[in-house]
Amino acid sequence: MLSLSPTEKEIMEVLWKSEGMTNNEIILYFKERGREWKRQTTNTFLTRLADKGLVTKTGHKYKAAYTKQEFETLRTKEILDSMYGGSLTNFISALNGGRQITEREAEELERLAGLREQG
After folding, report:
1. What is the C-alpha to C-alpha distance for residues 12 and 46, in angstroms, rounded to an integer?
2. In the chain, at which residue ranges do the beta strands (DSSP E only) sit?
3. Residue 102's pLDDT is what?
4. 54 burial type by CB count under 10 A (0-12 exposed, 13-18 middle, 19+ buried)
5. So what's the pLDDT on residue 119?
6. Opening angle at CA 105, ends 89 and 98, nearest 5
7. Does domain 6-66 have CATH number 3.40.50.300?
8. What is the pLDDT of residue 1?
9. How confident is the model at residue 97, as a pLDDT?
């Protein structure tokens, strides 16, 4: 599952903005922002992120395995598959509260899905 705890999300946000960081660089980054983390703490979170396939380690540097946009796409697909059986229709129906969508909303959805050209 690609869900992130608040701390995992914080670490990923830092890694997404970098070309890779060592555990010590991550500790220093958060220390400069008032967070006193021990090496064991960051190591535990980095291990969890690696187990989820979200972080890779080369030498001593940790790097995000996916861009933030790629992660968000994977996470969205995971939610769609697990909660709505992979059906965009079921998702939109749930999101919409079961109410009928307007013609304009239907046209916009079709345009976004690539079924209609903008015009």
Report:
1. 9
2. 21-22, 55-58, 61-64
3. 86
4. buried
5. 53
6. 45
7. no
8. 67
9. 83
The count of other CB atoms within 10 Å of the CB of residue 64 is: 23
Give domain limits for the chain: 6-66, 69-112
Q: Residue with structure tokens 């909660």?
A: 83
Residue 113 to residues 1, 26, 56, 84, Cα–Cα distance (Å) = 26, 40, 33, 18
In 3D space, the residue among 51, 34, 57, 43 whose CA is nearest the CA of residue 11 turns out to be 43
- Which positions of the chain have pLDDT values less than 50? none
| Model pTM score | 0.77
Could you tell me the two tokens for 38? Answer: 């021990």
